[in-house]
Amino acid sequence: xxxxxxxxxxxxxxxxxxxxxxxxxxxxxxxxxxxxxxxxxxxxxxxxxxxxxxxxxxxxxxxxxxxxxxxxxxxxxxxxxxxxxxxxxxxxxxxxxxxxxxxxxxxxxxxxxxxxxxxxxxxxxxxxxxxxxxxxxxxxxxxxxxxxxxxxxxxxxxxxxxxxxxxxxxxxxxxxxxxxxxxxxxxxxxxxxxxxxxxxxxxxxxxxxxxxxxxxxxxxxxxxxxxxxxxxxxxxxxxxxxxxxxxxxxxxxxxxxxxxxxxxxxxxxxxxxxxxxxxxxxxxxxxxxxxxxxxxxxxxxxxxxxxxxxxxxxxxxxxxxxxxxxxxxxxxxxxxxxxxxxxxxxxxxxxxxxxxxxxxxxxxxxxxxxxxxxxxxxxxxxxxxxxxxxxxxxxxxxxxxxxxxxxxxxxxxxxxxxxxxxxxxxxxxxxxxxxxxxxxxxxxxxxxxxxxxxxxxxxxxxxxxx
Length: 466
Hints:
Oligomer: single chain
Radius of gyration: 23 Å
Mean pLDDT: 87
Low-confidence stretches: 160-173, 175-180
Largest sheet: 6 strands, parallel
Number of strands: 22
Strand order of the largest sheet: 3-2-1-4-5-6
Number of helices: 16
Strand content: 25-35%
Helix content: 25-40%
């Protein structure tokens, strides 16, 4: 496929890294140093120029391309580039990245002539809501219209202390005695997987240990300190969360720091889920606007880093806090302070790739990069047409694919226990619209949508085989 990418920033670079081995790529950007950094790593074409110039796009060879991806940080550049693309080569598909959810609404109303619009705000808000639904997760995504959930957990040995605020050890024990018996941490961690009481309708797709990543077999054991990737039903994902962090409560009350577009998008998604939302905004005029825009949300005009304010408004009693301010440094400080005041779960929206690891190593529970998840959403449009969804894991070293099995596939008609051990794992299939979590004697059928965990280096092989 011949693909033009407008923008060589973080989104564009991530897309190039995912697609360079299987497509003919040309990247356009006004920054020569960004282009040089990409061309030194990948076999791609580069053009230094302005994506809003019709002449430049024509001279660069846009005509006859299969796909245009306009993914700069400026919405107007992306939209204008797609308009010129339509004029120059009407058969070329167009994808536009936007940081403003209003453009997504305009496109849905068919007032914007592009094939697909990906909103960074919307994608980040959905990522936050999915994480809140599984409180112990460090990353999560949903497939098959929500029937299949991919969850990444850090495995931490439970403390002897009861972590729920205001709950005595005796009361916790009494409550535990009255609840139905469920799998416990020790029923899963430290046991061979074939003997472990793992939740039904789920599979451990990967165990990450000391930077080594492997698809586990039956004799493998999950250990404290591991990171695991689980594929399962939403119910199974919640059960994994409960057994790995049994003292965490269901999230019903969320505080959002920052009432910019990212914060507003997140608030709207959480409100739709029936979660109580409070917003903290440092600019008085913006706080007033948001209070009128979201009447169901209590909006505070405050910095969010004043200890007296945090105590007075009992911010520490909230189940989770989302940090959506414009600067990573402010988000980091506010998250650290909120944690000290007792906030159960902290989720930070980060804008710099380097910040991801810094935040997580420093104790922020989850860091979400809108640019990365936007790139993931865009990448699937350049995959095999049978691929409906893509999620990237562990700095793009692994991917989860939702891909349909061809009738002529050599694997169609085989039992799952007969499938070759190739470093990839089918965690679920969608058959006639229903998600199934296969066992060894189940059969993979042509037309199944396979939810498969695979190293990024093997994506093309997986697509060919299936």
